[in-house]
Design goal:
The protein has 183 residues and is mainly α. It has a domain at 3-113: Orthogonal Bundle (Arc Repressor Mutant, subunit A), CATH 1.10.10.10. The chain has helices at residues 3-7, 10-19, 27-33, 39-51, 82-87, 90-113, 135-153, and strands at residues 24-26, 55-63, 66-73. A three-stranded antiparallel beta sheet has the order 1-3-2. Helix 2 (10-19) packs across helix 6 and helix 3 (27-33) packs across helix 4. The chain is globular. The mean pLDDT is 90. Residues 2-84 form the HTH arsR-type domain.
């Protein structure tokens, strides 16, 4: 299974999200982070991600007679590069977007189901803004957003840090106005 196929599943994408930030986790720990997903499903998808090269075994130890593996994400493999994204069909883009939205919905529901979830106190945001941008302005905005995100993507888990999921979604909502349509 190639990287695109591996990432095109909501549970596998949630596992990738859970593993981000340099974490090493056991499958049991991943199950705790995805309480709405059955253990068998988590184990099956961890196996697929490991077989596909997106997860590496960081170490192994014996626990009550069984071998417990700790996994780490191979971040460089868990991406869909620009060339791959440009080569997929419109229907594939629909499928990718649907998986991304299903994953986002599952993550948000898991957050709301946790004891003590408080969207206002946790500064939860889900806003949409319509912006009129030229191609150059769009490229500049994307660069600024990328710079802000990349500067924090290397953060590792520590006291005082909470893992947040941010999902920038950007697409043209309509074409440029016809001549005479502007005020």
């Amino acid at each position: 299974m190639d990287t695109v196929e591996l990432l095109l599943h909501p549970v596998r994408l949630r596992i990738v999200h859970a593993m981000s930030g340099g974490r090493t986790l056991t499958t049991s720990q991943m199950c705790a982070l995805l309480p709405d997903v059955s253990k068998a499903t988590v184990y099956r998808h961890v196996g697929l991600l490991a077989d596909g090269g997106l997860l590496d075994v960081a170490d192994e130890q014996r626990v009550r007679g069984a071998v417990e593996r700790r996994y780490r994400l191979r971040g460089e493999r868990a991406v869909i590069d620009t060339d791959t994204a440009a080569s997929v069909s419109v229907e594939d883009h629909r499928r990718v977007f649907a998986v991304a939205m299903a994953t986002l919905l599952a993550e948000f529901n898991a957050y709301l189901d946790r004891d003590g979830a408080d969207p206002a106190a946790d500064l939860v945001g889900y806003r949409q803004h319509a912006l009129w941008l030229s191609r150059d302005e769009l490229a500049e905005l994307i660069g600024e957003m990328r710079e802000a995100l990349v500067a924090r993507m290397g953060n590792t888990p520590s006291a005082g840090r909470t893992r947040h999921l941010i999902s920038p979604i950007l697409f043209p909502a309509e074409g440029p106005p016809a001549t005479g349509d502007t005020p």
